[in-house]
Amino acid sequence: MARSPLVTRSRGNGGRKPTAIASSWLKRQSFPLTAPTTPETVEPVERPGKVGADYDTDWARRTPARIARLALVEGVMRPAAAVLAQPDRRGGDRLADVDGPVIFTPNHHSHLDTPLMLTSIPEPWRHQLFVGAGADYFFTNRVTSALSALTIGAIPVERRKVTRRSADQAAELIDAGWSMLIFPEGGRSPDGWGQPFRGGAAYLSLRCGVPVVPVHLQGTGRILRKGAKLPTPSSTTVTFGDPLRPEDGEDSRRFAARIEDAVAALADETATNWYEARTRAHRRANPTLAGPEVARWRRAWAADATRAKRRRTGRWPL
User: Fold this and answer.
1) Phi-psi category of 210—alpha, beta or left, where left has phi over 0 and alpha has psi -120 to 50?
2) What is the largest CA-CA distance in the chain?
3) Distance of CA 305 to CAs 100, 111, 185, 234, Å?
């Protein structure tokens, strides 16, 4: 009588247990005993991951998480920002006629930028807000992913490539009445100067039909610049600009450039005054956020020299 491959003698099998041999035999079998394979002519179905750009943040917009985030923003972040940043908030009246969700687009110099914005954005947008955060930085494992989603309401955004998942998720939230905070530079400044604005915010504005609010943050780089371990308290200024909407026939690339120009004009306004900044903006003569086109070490040196001059004279740009 033929012996079943699942039944073996204890002798002659190298000391292997019957369960181990059975497992090995199953691995050699095909469907339906094992999972089916995908034919070569069929596109494989991608399985969603647990972290990174595939992390599910829907739970962070349910009532318990929103209550916890409200407590964190008002009870922890606001006092910390008041002590570390001493913020001077300007331009909130420019949002008086805005109704519905918007996209806030500040410049980015420090990890302090996000809590400063979360405590500076006025009502009714402050507590129905989500943050577009780098999937490769804030969603690298389950712990950082959960903390990012809970504390700042973040969703993962791919910074190195454009993905439909990130754009669709952001657009669905905006269409549902949520406002968005996104840093168009894609990351903190490595040398104290601004980086070119990317087109994500402009694209979402075009897609969802919502305005973009340019914001300039001044002084956060002095408190906790990229690479710093401990913060140094200093004063900051948060300036909100007039809401921008895409013009007829304007694509996301041109709109992104116009958003960057608006943030640069707000930086000029912070350093000088509203009239001079608007006069230069009319002539398209505002200083840019970017630094000189030289080596990075020279850009950092120039930024440090300009900071010292700014403290002495109160002039542009930092």
Assistant:
1) beta
2) 100
3) 42, 23, 23, 18
3-state DSSP call for residue 67? helix
Domains of the chain: 52-309 (3.40.1130.10)
Instruction: Give Cβ neighbours of residue 115 (< 8 Å, ≥ 6 apart).
Output: 73, 77, 80, 81, 152
The answer to whether 131 touches 154, Cβ cutoff 8 Å, is yes
- The CB-based long-range contact list for 21-25 (8 Å cut-off, 24+ gap) reads none
Q: How far apart are CA 117 and CA 132, in angstroms?
A: 13
Residue type, 65: A
* Residue 188, both tokens: 């903190």
Nearest to 180 by CA among 237, 224, 246, 129: 129
- pLDDT tens, 149-195? 999 999 998 876 656 788 899 999 999 999 999 999 887 776 667 78
Query: Could you tell me if 281 and 268 are in contact, meaning their C-beta atoms sit under 8 angstroms apart?
Result: yes
- Global confidence as pTM: 0.76
